[in-house]
């Protein structure tokens, strides 16, 4: 007989794996609802007594996560992080030129998680997505982000075109990445604040999104492959933007 599985709800995601769990526990903005763990996995952490903790065997923990999820002996159920307003993210001094990432209907949680990880690695200002066409917080996304979900600001907006207008008003040069562009990214990067706009897996940027970019650019990849995965493209673009800043 198959064991009953206890599924997480979209409003109360479950995170697993050491990096995702440790980052959530260390984030004062993150509300932890409960924890399931082995004694060994729980030992390094000082858990607030108000958080319910269930001690379980490794084999039993599999009931609380998707099949084959590498939980590493500890699972936390959480509330999603509080909303962040775009205006608040853009309120920064003109000297803060960290790149901003805008994702146009990137829906795969593994890709968004990997993009968050790159955003943390290259000290991006944050990411902006459209609320209806981006994944919710989840265990898969948090694990792919490897802790970055807790430290990179993530703004969800209703209308991406309107958000791009607001970003332009904050003096960002909006560069959309597309394989059909004539100029390479390196040639379009300026000395001011940069917003990098990336499209969905396969479809790329929508026409209306391209229309709200100041320039369209491509990554100079070889003819051996048609395109990069969006998370790989984001990492390369962030590196190029940060290198441009460091060279000034």
UniProtKB/TrEMBL annotation:
SMART domains: SpoU_sub_bind
Source species, domain of life: Bacteria
Pfam family, one: SpoU_methylase
Domain RNA 2-O ribose methyltransferase substrate binding: 14-84
Name of the featured protein: RNA methyltransferase, TrmH family, group 3
Keywords carried by this UniProt record: Methyltransferase, Transferase
GO cellular component, one term: cytosol
Keyword Endoplasmic reticulum attached: no
SUPFAM superfamilies recorded: alpha/beta knot, L30e-like
GO molecular function per UniProt: RNA binding; RNA methyltransferase activity
GO BP terms, alphabetized: methylation; RNA processing
